[in-house]
Amino acid sequence: MTITLITRRLHLRPLEPTDARHFARLFGEDSDAIALTATLPDPCTVEEAGKWIARRMRDSHGFAICRAGDGVFVGAIGFGEVLDRIELGYGIGRPFWGNGFATEAVREAVRHAQAVGVAALEACTFPSNPASARVLEKNGFKNMGRITRNYPLRGGQRAVFRHVLDLTGEPKL
Fold first, then answer.
1. Residue 172 pLDDT exceeds 80
2. Rounded Cα–Cα distance for residues 97 and 92 (Å)
3. Tell me: the pLDDT tens digits for 74-129?
4. Which residues contact 129 (CB under 8 A, 6 or more apart)?
5. Average pLDDT of span 139-152
6. Could you give the CA distance from residue 165 to residue 85 in angstroms, rounded to a whole number?
C-alpha cells in the first residue's frame, strides 16, 4: 500500500517497520494507555512494536498518524478483517490526547474504507474508555450495546461496547 490520506491537520501514511521506535517512545511503559487498546503489546518495546507493525502491514490497511505541519508521529489507525467483520482500531499517544486527532483520523479512515468498497466497519471500546466511544459517535458509528470479546493481551474475555457504521448508504429496515 502506498496511499497517503491527507486531512487538514494530519497525514495518514502507511505503517513502516521503522515506526516501531515511535510506538516505543509514545506508549513504552504507559500501561494505562496500552490497556485502552486491543492489541498493542505491553510493554511496548521497539521489538514488540515491530512485530505488531509487521502483522498490520501483512493483513490490514494500517496507517501511521502524523501531524501535517511537522510530521510528528502521534499514533496509528487501521482496519482489517477479523473473523466475519471489518474492524477499525486506533491509538493516539497520551501527549496528543484531547486535540481531536483521533476524531479526524477516524473520519479519514472511514472515507478510505468506503472508497475501497468496505460495506461496514465495526469498532469496540472498553467501558473504561468513553473518550474513544465519543470519537466513534462523532463519526457516525452506532453503539450496539455491550458484548463480550476475547482479548488475550488484555486478560481474555472482556466486556466491550460494539460500535457499527454502515458504509453502503442504504436505509435501515
1. no
2. 7
3. 999 999 988 889 999 999 999 999 999 999 999 999 999 999 999 999 999 999 99
4. 36
5. 96
6. 12
**5-166: CATH homologous superfamily?**
Gcn5-related N-acetyltransferase (GNAT) (3.40.630.30)
Please state the separation of Cα 58 from the chain's center in Å.
16
SS (H, E, C) the chain: CCCCEECCCEEEEECCHHHHHHHHHHHCCCHHHHCCCCCCCCCCCHHHHHHHHHHHHHHCEEEEEEECCCCCEEEEEEEEEECCEEEEEEEECHHHCCCCHHHHHHHHHHHHHHHCCCCEEEEEECCCCHHHHHHHHHCCCEEEEEEEEEEHHHCEEEEEEEEEEECCCCCCC
Domain range list for the chain: 5-166
Taking the C-alpha atoms of residue 55 and residue 66, their distance in angstroms, rounded to an integer, is: 20
Mean pLDDT of 19-25: 97
What pLDDT, in 10s, does the model give residues 27-39? 998 999 999 999 9
